[in-house]
Design a protein that fits this description.
By secondary structure, the protein is α/β, with parallel strands linked by helices. Helices cover 38% and strands 18% of the residues.
Length: 342
């Protein structure tokens, strides 16, 4: 579905961008393909408009996204805090992409909350928090990268779409749609892809960069997760994987190595919900996935300080890994009827 931008807000933002501006683009902690793809795609567009643009991420991004043009200039707040602070201090505008709550930027939150310039949100998650001057929130869009494409077109700049912009946006689309297999994909999504392809991007090469460039250690880690850590609760049509920090270190864990593992658990015949638990940064991070009408967003919000989409959500727990998994397992009988496959 094509997002319907508020005409007054779109006009105001467009007017802001008629003069050269110092701009920061930021996204959520542990950026995925859509977070980095939409950020760099927007950066390349704003560069062409003559703006001075810096992308600041709250943490590192996966190596399999490092092929994107401009990724080498991204400032990682954790590794380069001083540079990130300087970028925010100079900025007149901050674009907030692919997150709906300032809590999602974690350690960057104080810097973002303290920014006194114009903040613009572009996102596709449900229930956005009101923290920006302009909010372009479209939960029916399959990815923030899709929104960025329509923003460029709505600004009258379809002619500026080039391979640099298109490659980044395409990466965001394929990662956030599971290579176009999720329910969020619409006819409009494929029309957007068609227009991105007209720029001459090498879509098969982009797929190779993202999905066929695993390190040997990552492949061994995935095998370990599936062989030794997969637990299936057939009576609740649920499967989960839980890994400790020590186990991740044993396989030389890098940012992005957990990406997609939860989907293998969901791919088991008869499974309607899957979860991945991992010890990170002193807490337990959780990725939830589901099929059909079962909302992991609600489960995450009500029990694990999380949120997201109906069929893809995240959460966190201050309990130990063992106790977090037990809490999840103890909840399953409460959801048994909703988890029935039919």
């Amino acid at each position: 579905m094509i997002p319907q931008f508020n005409p007054d807000d779109l006009l105001s933002v467009n007017q802001l961008l008629t003069e050269k501006r110092k701009i920061v683009i930021t996204t959520h902690h542990k950026p995925d393909g859509d977070a980095l793809g939409s950020s760099l795609g927007l950066k390349h567009y704003l560069d062409l408009k003559g703006h001075e643009v810096t992308v600041v991420t709250p943490s590192e991004y996966p190596d399999f996204l490092a092929w994107m043009k401009g990724s080498e200039e991204v400032i990682d707040y954790i590794k380069s805090t001083k540079l990130a602070n300087e970028a925010f201090a100079k900025a007149e505008i901050v674009f907030c992409l692919d997150f709906n709550d300032p809590k999602r930027v974690e350690r960057l939150q104080n810097l973002l909350n303290g920014f006194q310039g114009v903040k613009i949100l572009m996102d596709h998650h449900l229930d956005p928090v009101s923290f920006c001057n302009y909010t372009f929130s479209f939960p029916k869009s399959c990815a923030t990268s899709e929104i960025i494409f329509h923003f460029i077109v709505a600004c009258g700049d379809r002619n500026l779409l080039d391979q640099n912009i298109a490659s980044c946006l395409y990466a965001g689309l394929i990662t956030d749609t599971g290579s176009f297999r999720f329910d969020s994909v619409s006819a409009d999504t494929h029309e957007v892809v068609a227009q991105l392809l007209t720029t001459g991007i090498k879509h098969s090469l982009i797929h190779d960069y993202i999905y066929d460039s695993y390190s040997e250690a990552r492949l061994h880690f995935m095998g370990f997760c599936l062989k030794d850590k997969l637990v299936v609760h057939q009576e609740f049509h649920t499967a989960h994987i839980a890994v400790t920090r020590a186990e991740m270190d044993m396989y030389k864990h890098q940012a992005g190595d957990l990406e997609g593992i939860v989907n293998f658990a969901l791919s088991i015949k008869g499974i309607k919900m899957a979860a991945l638990f991992s010890e990170r940064d002193g807490i337990v991070k959780i990725s939830f996935r589901s099929k059909g009408n079962f909302s992991v967003k609600e489960l995450a919000e009500q029990n694990f300080e999380g949120g997201g989409h109906k069929n893809a959500a995240g959460g966190r727990s201050a309990l130990s890994l063992k106790d977090t998994v037990k809490k999840f397992d103890d909840l399953l009988p409460l959801y048994k009827n909703k988890l029935e496959v039919g």
